[in-house]
Amino acid sequence: MYLSDAPNGASFKVIRVLIGKEVGKRLADMGFTEGAEGAVVRGGLFRGPLQVRIRGYDVLIRRSEAAGIEVEPVGDWSAAEDANRLFGTFGRFGGKGRGWRKGGGNGWGRRGRWYNPHNSEETPQ
Predict the structure, then answer these.
(1) Most Cβ neighbours (<10 Å): which of 16, 40, 79, 93?
(2) H or E element: which one contains 61?
(3) How confident is the model at residue 81 (pLDDT cuts 50, 70, 90)?
(4) How far apart (Å, rounded) are the C-alpha atoms in residues 52 and 9?
(5) Cα separation, 74 vs 39, whole angstroms
(6) Is the pTM of this model over 0.70?
């Protein structure tokens, strides 16, 4: 399993880092070495970066980099997966609303369906 697949709140143990060159060295310098234990604090919006707590530090890494870190679960991941499934994400954009545009793009705006301000027969609502 890879770190990018871990749900929020899941604890893990690093098996190995599969990324080479400078990025792999940078990850090793940040604490992603064999046997290191950590936890996923949260994932970014729209599958953005992951906030990971490892060796006492909070590190944000890209999902593409997290996909190159092989981990094994520590503890029970099902509780973290259930919480994400049941309660979803929290925060400004985490709900199931329609976004800033309450009409949802269906033509119903503030003044009604396809309001034309130049039409004298139509009055604003």
Answers:
(1) 40
(2) strand 57-61
(3) low
(4) 9
(5) 9
(6) no
